[in-house]
Amino acid sequence: MPKSTMNAGKLWTGDQVSKLRKLARQHTPTRVIGLKLGRTEEAIRSKASEEGISLKPTNKPPYGNRKR
Questions:
Q1: What is the dihedral sign for C-alpha 51, 19, 61, 64?
Q2: CA distance 6 to 53
Q3: How far apart are CA 58 and CA 68, in angstroms?
Q4: Per residue in 35-63, pLDDT tens?
Q5: Which of 14, 38, 60, 67 fits a disulfide with 6 by CB distance 3.0 to 4.6 angstroms?
Q6: DSSP letter string over 33-66?
């Protein structure tokens, strides 16, 4: 079973919702959030919508502004 769906069909825990909030605040891409929480992208989007969590970036890159 792929890691991205290891929690598919299971109820969300408070800890997972907290991690979702934190990752969304850090502008982490939805796919990466899904991998970290063991959920599909659809499940991440659905729960974020249900909890009022914005997954939209605010014109900030997710991994910092390090110039090369």
A1: positive
A2: 22
A3: 22
A4: 999 999 999 999 999 999 998 875 566 56
A5: 38
A6: HHHHHT--HHHHHHHHHHHT------S--TT---
Half-sphere exposure of 53 (CA within 13 A, CB side): 23
HSE at residue 64, side-chain half, CA atoms within 13 A, is 3
Quick one: pLDDT at residue 58? 58
- With a CB cutoff of 8 Å and minimum separation 6, the contacts of 28 are 36, 62
The CA dihedral of 16, 20, 26, 28, to the nearest 10 degrees, is: 110
Q: What is the pLDDT averaged over residues 8-17?
A: 88
Residue among 51, 50, 48, 52 at smallest CA distance from 39? 48
